[in-house]
Amino acid sequence: MGVLNVTPDSFSDGGRYADRAAAVAHGVAMRAEGADIVDVGGESTRPGADRIDAQTEIGRVLPVVRELTAAGVPVSIDTSRAAVAVEALAAGAVLVNDVSGGLADPAMAKVVADAGCPWVLMHWRGHSRDMQRLALYQDVVAEVRAELSLRVDEALAAGVAPDQIIVDPGLGFAKTAEHNWLLSAHLDRIMALGYPVLFAASRKSYLGRLLADRQGNPRPVHEREAATLATTVLAIEAGVWGVRVHDVRASVDAIKVWEATWRARSR
Ligand code: PMM
Q1: Any ligand 1 atom below 6 A from CB of 232
Q2: DSSP labels for 95-133?
Q3: What domain range is 41 assigned to?
Q4: Which residues are catalytically annotated?
Q5: What's the rounded mean pLDDT across residues 219-229?
Q6: Does any domain span residue 21?
Q7: What is the CATH number of the domain that holds 41?
Q8: Interval 16-30 mean pLDDT
Q9: pLDDT over 80 at 121, yes or no
Q10: Ligand 1 centroid from CA 252, angstroms
Q11: Which residues pair with 2 in a beta bridge?
Q12: CB distance 45 to ligand 1 below 6 Å
């Protein structure tokens, strides 16, 4: 899954693809590099971000969803608003990626159930503005798993088909670096829920912190790619359904190495 944030302020690609033509060209390029799907988002979810209104979000994403779909690129819509999902699905999006797992908008479950499309339910505890104060866990893996399980139950109760559900531990969302490492190390326990898992570590700040220089300055966002690739390989080895990344070609290359090695294991 290639990341395409049509926002002025996302932490990694904010501002780069705010222009429609640049966004569409980047989406087409990610598809050519091997992305199975391009994830279009119009609202930044970086920690501390303020919300925008639904019309602004729709205005940002809709032209891009439409043009990418017309160009034959499979698109997912990264939104936690039902109104945005409705418009994006009508414009050709084939999957809803909801960082709130259905919690932010009670109307989302019915939209997804009616559309019959896949739904990524990410683990989430609150909006970006103040989510880091919700990063309190006794046992992060057990609690994320239990809270995801509740989201799945609600989705099923709303009529979403079980084979359309994908879960995501939500790295960085109400999580400290230590929480992210624990979730990464115990993906098997998230997978034990019985649903495909999406893993989204690409360029996140805990990688920047891991790679900090001797003065403790985090590694800048655009110099976290090698670390991102390591997370891709580890997640694929753990058996995830997909990885959500900014540099598609690099992760596709790494996955090809993993696949060739995996095939050779049985020879
Ligand atoms: N992270 C971001 C945005 N959308 N969606 C899912 N399913 N999982 C994530 O972890 C996730 C997401 C924030 O990162 P970005 O600014 O690179 O898009």
Answers
A1: no
A2: EEEETTTT-S-TTHHHHHHHHT--EEEE---S-GGGGGG
A3: 1-98
A4: 204, 244
A5: 97
A6: yes
A7: 3.20.20.20
A8: 92
A9: yes
A10: 18
A11: 38, 245
A12: yes
